[in-house]
């Protein structure tokens, strides 16, 4: 089925920006819908964005809408999560989750729940 791996996390000051990557190996990422979610230890997972493969529609949770943007780089077989205007509440481990069925339409920001193909996550810390 192939694998995905997140990268790009790190320490950033409030108000700063960061770009996370979700890179795929052994399959063509653009054919599959993708979800991003995050988790703080001891708290529930939060779905933050989905990218629907058939038409490229994107969906965002209210908590990140207007600040986060998902995009694809087909040549690099990678999806990005561009995060801006970061606040301490964005501190979490961020994961991408990828559908195993190609060209399935998703809606809403919580599609990750249905996707088993996930990476190990990347830690984002927003702090001064």
What value does the Rg take, in angstroms? 13 Å
> How can the largest sheet be summarized?
7 strands, mixed
Helix content: under 10%
SSE order, one letter for each helix or strand: EEEEEEEEEEE
Compute the number of strand runs.
Answer: 11
Low-pLDDT parts are none
Mean pLDDT: 96
Q: What's the overall geometry?
A: globular
C-alpha end-to-end distance = 40 Å
The percent range for strand residues is 35-45%
- The SS-based structural class is mainly beta
Instruction: Note the total helix count.
Output: 0
Question: Quick gist of this model?
Answer:
This protein has strands at residues 3-7, 10-12, 18-25, 34-39, 46-51, 58-60, 68-73, 78-83, 92-98, 117-118, 122-126.
Characterization of this structure:
- It contains no helices and eleven strands.
- It has strands at 3-7, 10-12, 18-25, 34-39, 46-51, 58-60, 68-73, 78-83, 92-98, 117-118, 122-126.
- The strands form two sheets. Strands 2, 4, 5, 6, 9, 10 and 11 form a seven-stranded mixed β-sheet that branches.
- The mean pLDDT is 96.
Helix-strand blueprint:
Layout: E1 3-7, E2 10-12, E3 18-25, E4 34-39, E5 46-51, E6 58-60, E7 68-73, E8 78-83, E9 92-98, E10 117-118, E11 122-126
Parallel strand pairs: 2-11
Antiparallel strand pairs: 1-3, 3-8, 4-5, 4-9, 5-6, 7-8, 9-10, 9-11
